[in-house]
Amino acid sequence: MSASRRKGTTDELGPDEPERSENPGGPVGPDGADLLAALLDGMDAALCAFDADGVVTHWNREAERILGWSAAEAVGRQGFAGWAVREADAEEVETRLMSAMHASGRQVHEFALLTKDGGRVLVRTQSAAVPGPDGKPAGLYCAFSEVHAQIDLERSIALSEALFDDASWGVVLVDADLRPAVVNAHAARALGTGRTAVLGRPLGELLTQGVEELENALTHVLAEGAPPAPAEVWVGVRTPEGERRRCWRSGFLRLASPLAEEPVPLGVGWLFQDVTEAKQGEQEASLLRFRTNQLHRAARAAAECEDPAEAATVHLDFALAGFADHALIDRVAGGAAAESESVAVPLRLVRVAATPSGGPGPSALTGYAGLPVRYPEGHPALQCVARAGSVRAGAGGVPAEETREWARARQWPQDTVHALCAVLRSRGRTLGVVTFLRGAGRTSFERSDATYAEDVAVRIAAALDLADLADLADLAGGGTGA
User: pTM here?
Assistant: First the structure.
């Protein structure tokens, strides 16, 4: 309830006692006093006003809520002394309040006021003069709020400013149309553009990958609220240097208007931190553990094979899991080639084992006829044997038909897009080459993949070398028996 003191009398304004209109036949609507009362009662801050003599003329509902004194009890009192302020503090409080009538601008003070039940409330006040028709001060108004509420507000504002200026993680406010409305400096750098250049643009113009996942998360937050834990989103960011793939650990908050009776979503607060290096480290460590475990399991399984050639295919099958789609083992025709030997005839390779190209299955030993594979000159497998080192090859970003032709020309399954050849070396000799093949659904081979392939090749070469020694032993034994 608010009240105003006009024409020397105190009138209480409220919904039950509207003032009579001085123009009964005129248009129906609120007069100035009704409008003023409604405005005062709708304020979030407590407000009171004093005339030039220090008498309370206005008192709104927020002031009543904080101190407990109703408008009827407050309006018409001389200052705060004896009811809203202790007698010992009354003179100082009144002097500081009334000084606002003769000062320019607003005056900010903190006072301890008394509540109706005898408690004390520390408030922060803003006071300013109210000029009369002649331009001279006719009184003053005093808006006040509890200090802790004011501090909470200031902290919220300070937090918002800090987040959008100095935060060490990205902060983006996304509107209900899923477009950035406010972006801090860290987020702008992560997106590879300026703070103002981001605003209002669709996320698809800023990111090359991860847009659907990110928009799905924002839509869910708008509809259901914030998720219980952060989410890790892999995105592709456009930069002047090209596309960069990044992992952002993201938290989402639904923003609702505090001024609406029903929660009206204003958008989503999106906070993210770049954790690409940490995630890549975790993935590499996990991959290394898996591959080490595969090598260990393959060694144990191969140790149970009576036929060394079969042990070679066991190593190949264990290596294939999670690494490639197909694999081939080719031997140098005639057994092995030493580095010091000068080859007078073109190098030829014979297929000895291969994985099924039509579907999954274990590797099978082939090449019993000893017919060489029709590899064209410059084939990656031939280069691998000639260099005695790993060779990587890829079809590149060409159409699907050209990719199939590229694979067919190299005697590989037609769905091959990436290849990695590792040389088979044992006892200082080159025995052949193992080739790992990947389809379009996998990434190209990297240096870490070549290292793993070389570890597998060492084990396969040892098994094949042992198979050669076993064959020689059988021949020697057969000759002696004869």
Answer: 0.61
